[in-house]
Design brief:
single chain, three-stranded antiparallel β-sheet, 7 helices, 16 strands, metal-binding
């Protein structure tokens, strides 16, 4: 049996947290940055969504021992009584379908963080090839992991969004600049503040539905540019890695989910830069309206809370999310994301 991740030491020579103020429960996942690490350009691949194979009854996922609680009518379900690590292939297929239907799933009391990196990657790969992030901290020897980390000496995300902003909220869909952005995404907590540090999620399906039919028609068929350039330039300025050349990719403003058929907005303030074929003022007007519409949609948003053993699974194709940095930077927060990529977005 592989050792518990809590027992893996990682690279002590490059891990100041092992001797500093922050005491990590899982030092193996301390963020690793190697400026010499290089990745080739991402290649297109054929994607077959596991949710399309799933039994709609979800008998392998939602057993007699499983309890679910919907957080909102439109988005979010809390699940107890099932271990992701023990799901069969059929159960993982049903997980993909359930995530597509409910957008965000909060699994409680999971052993996922302690099953070892190989098994964690094996499970995530069921949903598609895992993106290797071009700039963020990963785990040495495991570039599939995207490490989210904040302690008194390290606050990269506040620097990225700008320290002069009144709010830290930054709605985005992960790595939407990729030619094949992600689908069923995994996020597991290692160390969390006692209060705060939640994640905001919203339904891009419901955001689209709230628009008038005439405006919906106007948006369908439009394409927007999603860019990794700002992210790469920030990493370069602070002496961090740029593991491959930043890409800019056109995606439909309204996309269709390949399994549920639902239409969803596919714009986000984090990476969407301009609408193709529009003049700057025209593009800014529409995008800023959509960004504002999304941000104000408290009635199609939820706040995902964390406890020891929480794993959040969401479908990045039909959601946007934001960190909530509402805790003092003297408090440690440490988490890991696995981000399987999916199909080229299907226009509505």
């Amino acid at each position: 049996m592989a050792p518990s991740v809590a027992e893996l030491k990682g690279d002590e020579a490059t891990n100041p947290a092992l001797t500093g103020k922050a005491k990590l429960s899982h030092p193996f996942y301390y963020p690793y940055f190697d400026v010499k690490e290089q990745f080739p350009p991402t290649q297109l691949f054929e994607h077959n969504d596991p949710g399309a194979r799933a039994d709609p009854a979800k008998t392998h996922l939602l057993t007699a021992n499983t309890t679910t609680r919907d957080i909102s009518p439109y988005i979010g379900t809390e699940i107890t009584g099932v271990q992701i690590s023990q799901l069969s292939k059929e159960g993982l297929d049903e997980l993909a379908l359930f995530a597509a239907e409910r957008k965000v799933l909060l699994f409680r009391d999971q052993d996922f963080k302690d099953i070892g990196p190989e098994r964690q990657i094996e499970i995530a790969k069921h949903f598609g090839p895992i993106q290797r992030h071009p700039t963020s901290g990963n785990v040495k020897g495991y570039p599939e992991f995207h490490v989210v980390y904040r302690d008194p000496e390290h606050d990269v995300f506040r620097d990225y969004r700008g320290r002069d902003r009144a709010s830290g909220v930054n709605w985005h869909s992960d790595i939407s600049y990729e030619k094949q952005p992600p689908s069923t995404t995994f996020f597991f907590i290692l160390d969390q503040p006692g209060v705060g540090g939640d994640t905001l999620f919203l339904s891009q399906v419901e955001a689209y539905k709230r628009l008038s039919p005439e405006f919906q028609k106007r948006l369908e068929g439009l394409r927007a540019v999603h860019s990794a350039v700002q992210q790469a330039e920030f990493s370069e300025r602070r002496g961090g890695p740029v593991r491959r050349e930043p890409v800019e990719t056109e995606h439909p403003l309204v996309r269709k989910h390949p399994v549920t058929g639902e239409k969803a907005l596919y714009v986000n303030e984090g990476f969407t830069r301009r609408i193709v074929g529009f003049k700057k003022e025209e593009s800014d007007l529409i995008l800023n309206f959509l960004f504002n519409h999304i941000a104000k949609g408290a009635d199609f948003q939820i706040r995902a809370t964390y406890a020891p053993g929480t794993v959040v699974v969401w479908d990045n194709r039909v959601t946007a999310h934001s960190a909530t940095v509402d805790f003092d930077n003297t408090i440690l927060r440490h988490a890991v994301r696995l981000t399987p990529q999916a199909e080229v977005p299907i226009p509505a």
